[in-house]
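Data card: per-record layout.
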Amino acid sequence: MGKTSSKNRKGFSLAEAMMATIVLGVAAAGVLLPFTTGAKVRSEGMRLTLASKLAGDLMEEVVNTPFDQIITNYNYSEAEGQIKDADGIVFGDSNYSRFSREVSSELIYVAQQDGTKAPNFIKVTVRVYYDGVETAIINRLISN
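The structure for this 144-residue chain is written out next.
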């Protein structure tokens, strides 16, 4: 029995197997990339939605407060992970752990006022931060 010819050989050589692995790896990366990007965009969208909700909830609380109590009650900040609901209870959900929030209020005179009477307006600003980066802001002018 003599030498076996290369025509009778079955299977892949090591070089062919390595090339197939590389081609499959590149193809898999191309297929998976949109999924990882989509997950990142979805996460960012959820973060922005939650920040907007936190800002809106606090602004609603301010608007429902008597005018003469707004300046006294709404000039504070909540540290990261210490955001409170309307009852003053810190949110225990881990979704809120990286958020912080601040509210400021100031009396505003409008151009028609001469400054001798008490201001009729309060400017309220609510800012929400995620990891220290401002994520949502709401400004509102509240009248007496």
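Known properties of this structure: The chain has one domain: 12-143. The chain has a mean pLDDT of 86.

See the next section for split statistics.
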